[in-house]
From TrEMBL:
SUPFAM superfamilies xref list: PHP domain-like
UniProt-recorded Gene Ontology molecular function terms: 5'-3' DNA exonuclease activity; 5'-3' RNA exonuclease activity
CDD domains for this protein: PHP_HisPPase
Domain Polymerase/histidinol phosphatase N-terminal: 6-74
Name recorded for this polypeptide: PHP domain protein
InterPro entries: PHP_dom, PHP_domain, Pol/His_phosphatase_N, Pol/histidinol_Pase-like
Length: 217
């Protein structure tokens, strides 16, 4: 089986703080060699559905997984493979129940500046499928390290996400996995196969741009 390259955390212009059209996400992702991406807008699957449909209609060589980054009372959680929008501001447990059958990831869990769920990870560690142990927008590298140790200690698979809101961020982090390029094989592979993380932090600049976009929208 071949090694494939994946990024499970990308925002489109359907996020209040992002500006990328789904077609641009597809173009840019293919240009940096990504095989699989999850589009994960804040509290909506609109961007992901559009990207997935475009990829299928145009028969592009990239697999799009439908995702959303849902705000809960504890912080944010990424839900993949559920098409319906999950209501925001539910408890973590209710969010997981609502998204039953989905694939759950704790993004930047120890980044307290950016809605990480922190210690509440303990409440759901048996129910989540992966922890984002490298997030390119995390400003303190310590936050990624804490996530990595937590994942190892609790035997939860660790993945990476660029948290891209702008095209120059796509490719800043990704993970590699032995898997076929279809959703079932990928999600099963995360559970069973070795995962290799590659990443760099994108620094302050994208954050400033994000606040500006949010302000201008
Ligand atoms: Zn995000």
């Amino acid at each position: 089986m071949e090694q494939i390259k994946l990024d499970f955390h990308i925002h489109s212009h359907y996020s209040p703080d992002g500006n990328m059209k789904p077609i641009l996400i597809l173009e840019k992702s293919m240009s940096v060699g990504l095989d699989v991406i999850a589009v994960t807008d804040h509290n909506t699957t609109k961007g992901a559905l559009e990207a997935r449909n475009l990829s299928e209609q145009m028969d592009l060589d990239i697999l799009v997984i439908v995702g959303q980054e849902v705000k809960t009372l504890s912080g944010e959680i990424i839900v993949l493979n559920i098409e319906e929008d999950i209501p925001k501001n539910l408890s973590l447990e209710d969010t997981i129940n609502y998204g039953k059958g989905g694939f759950f990831i704790a993004p930047h869990p120890f980044d307290k500046f950016r809605q990480g769920i922190g210690e509440d990870l303990d409440l759901i560690k048996s129910k989540i499928n992966a922890i984002e142990i490298f997030n390119s927008r995390t400003l303190l590298s310590n936050h990624n390290k804490l996530a990595g140790s937590y994942a190892r200690l609790n035997k939860v698979p660790g993945i990476a996400g660029s948290d891209s809101h702008f095209q120059e961020e796509i490719g800043s982090s990704y993970f590699m996995l032995k898997s076929k390029k279809n959703i079932n094989s990928v999600l099963k592979g995360i559970k069973e196969n070795e995962i290799f993380i590659y990443g760099r932090q994108t620094g302050f600049k994208p954050h400033i741009k994000t606040s500006l976009i949010h302000f201008l929208k």
